């Protein structure tokens, strides 16, 4: 991946009647990267991708591809290509003719088209006999690969994906996620992938852009988004999380409801006088500290509560604890560290400072 | 894309709009024009008056209109009852037979209405298929079943059966099975399921079926002429007579306008209640 | 909720009886066409195919067939084209007057055909056009092309619009999309619309009655004879007309199978 920008958008707006789907969006996509755009449904991600490939026109703002403005170029003249959620494979054509389609439109001669289609079948690890198969004879995973092969045949500058895996079952989705990541590495193309599933984004992408209500909340590598989210929305969107409102008084004293916080530790949270924030800690970073065999570093922040329930998540166990002001807290631990308490038991939860993160602002 | 859609929509609608504008709306305007001309003229360059409408009231044409509407209503209701079980079976019970029945019914539509009604004449007349064989086997015959009002309704029921059957079947197929199952699970009786689940959910199909049948039957003429003899004169027949034997285009036009107004009002009100996209199986 | 065996059997019987009810009059016509007697009365005592020979030899019948064929042929071709584009405007594209357009298309189907025929007669008169079989084509089109539109629209509704978007994304122009994607995918609908158009035009009488002028189609001639009193040629020509449409229908239904067989043989 280079630092060169391949796609850039600035001040992009899209309105449908009274509804504003995109509010002044800015984004730079780097050459060769795998960028995932993640957001709940209705956050504007599909609208955004349709503007990228030219199926809709922006209300305002510009899109540059390698420094050239493309927002006024119609879809059929843009060197980008999209893999649709529905895949949009042509049901009246064979697999081979589907893959060859962009080459046919570009005027490539039949022999060359066929050769390229067979190469792409190899690349996607589909048997060459599939060339003559009909689309309805292919399984879900095979169709997925055919759609990818067709998009690659177009040889786009950037390949866009609109949740193509969302209709598949869990296991197939996991396999294809790995294949897609592998394909990205082998082709060296720029991939921009839209999904509502964070897991999918984490599994494949170099960077993740979190969208909410027509704006980007945070654009960063997956690890950073997971451990240092910039907002409560991102923190909660990225999976289970414990959040505690914290506030520094004007005289610098830090108040956190129910948390036992040593003043020396509190000073290191990085809150300025008069500032409010949210302390975030992921369930797997929380330990039950009243166990004799707690182990690990001594907790710097603790909170008391009562055990409510234990859930078996397979490889891990999850505990639900009711905090002092009735809030719901979550703890996750590996199976072998089972707590073994009964509902109603008093417990103390604790974690170290370097495992939590403060989100600034309300 | 929306802008392109808008342009292509208008573009692709153009041939049809030209056809309907020139050969449907324009002729209707001509009919409207003639209906306000003085009696027995053959062009539109006269002082408009409403003498044709006045004539229409004086001559008691409302009787024909009432007959047409009444028989159309009767045949619509009969068809609704007759077709419901069949449509239900097509949508939910039959498997392969649905296709056979569909093909069979559609093919019957391709035979000219005249020939089919003529077939009924041959079947029902004195010495026809029914009476002839009855006399042959039992020795006693009857006078034939033709030339009365009920046989016209029978003819309407026969001719418009497909127009009720297919929309009904389409409507019933839109009723999800799990809704009926859930209702049954919650203790609803068969009658209750019909009333609370089937009828409301199949309503678009019922509306379209009744509308088509009623409107087409109101304007029908061949049934009364071939099967009914002169038992009842229907409104479309009066229109035709005014134009041909009567040679009174304004009177015929005024009669046609009344028929158009009634049929058009019913059709427009009905069509507005139905989501065409949904009933025709729209995907997005 | 599965219906019982008994009610299933009852419904099946009901369906079969309905089919019988629909076709019973044609059976009567069929018997009548082979009765030797000049004045028909059941049961038929002597069967004879003489009326068929007479009908075949008749110049009138040949002219009627020819005119009906010309009208139906032209109506088929034009309504397939108009209906194809009409269906796209009806079902596929989101444009401002789509709702209005959908309702406008339904109006001629609902319209009393006799009145429509008369209205067209007056319109042609006002334009100074002399009615002939050409004007009958126009009259049929007003009723049949909306039906063709609806038939193709059903197909257009089940068609995934992202297919066209995908093709555009890969560089297709609007015309290329039409040729490569839209036409092939809507073709089955267009063909069945064409079949409907031909058969409906072939059997139509109320529209032809006032708009053919001096020419006459088969159904018109049959009607004139029926109203005038019994003629043994009526059932005969009626049967011939039904057989002609049945043959066309059979060919149309079998054609895809035959083409597939032929292709398979050619491929071997």
Automatic annotation (TrEMBL), chain A:
One of its GO terms (molecular function) is ATP hydrolysis activity. Residues 7-238 form the ABC transporter domain. InterPro entries: AAA+_ATPase, ABC_SmlMolc_Importer, ABC_transporter-like_ATP-bd, ABC_transporter-like_CS, Mo/tungstate-bd_C_term_dom, P-loop_NTPase, Transp-assoc_OB_typ2. Pfam families: ABC_tran, TOBE_2. It comes from the Bacteria. The keyword ATP-binding applies. One of its GO terms (cellular component) is ATP-binding cassette (ABC) transporter complex. Keywords: ATP-binding, Nucleotide-binding, Transport. GO terms for biological process: quaternary ammonium group transport. This is Spermidine/putrescine transport system ATP-binding protein. It comes from Rhodospira trueperi.
Automatic annotation (TrEMBL), chain B:
Its main location: membrane. This is Spermidine/putrescine transport system permease protein. Pfam families: BPD_transp_1 (PF00528). Residues 65-270 form the ABC transmembrane type-1 domain. One of its GO terms (cellular component) is plasma membrane. It comes from the Bacteria. It is a multi-pass membrane protein. InterPro entries: MetI-like, MetI-like_sf. Keywords: Cell membrane, Membrane, Transmembrane, Transmembrane helix, Transport. Belongs to the binding-protein-dependent transport system permease family. CysTW subfamily. Signal peptide: none annotated. GO terms for biological process: transmembrane transport.
Automatic annotation (TrEMBL), chain C:
It holds the Pfam family BPD_transp_1. Its main location: membrane. GO terms for cellular component: plasma membrane. InterPro entries: Bact_Polyamine_Transport, MetI-like, MetI-like_sf. It is a multi-pass membrane protein. SUPFAM superfamilies: MetI-like (SSF161098). GO terms for biological process: transmembrane transport. Keywords: Cell membrane, Membrane, Transmembrane, Transmembrane helix, Transport. It is found in: Cell membrane. Residues 65-255 form the ABC transmembrane type-1 domain. The chain crosses the membrane at residues 12-34, 71-93, 105-124, 136-157, 177-200, 233-255. Gene3D superfamilies: MetI-like (1.10.3720.10). Belongs to the binding-protein-dependent transport system permease family. CysTW subfamily. This is Spermidine/putrescine transport system permease protein.
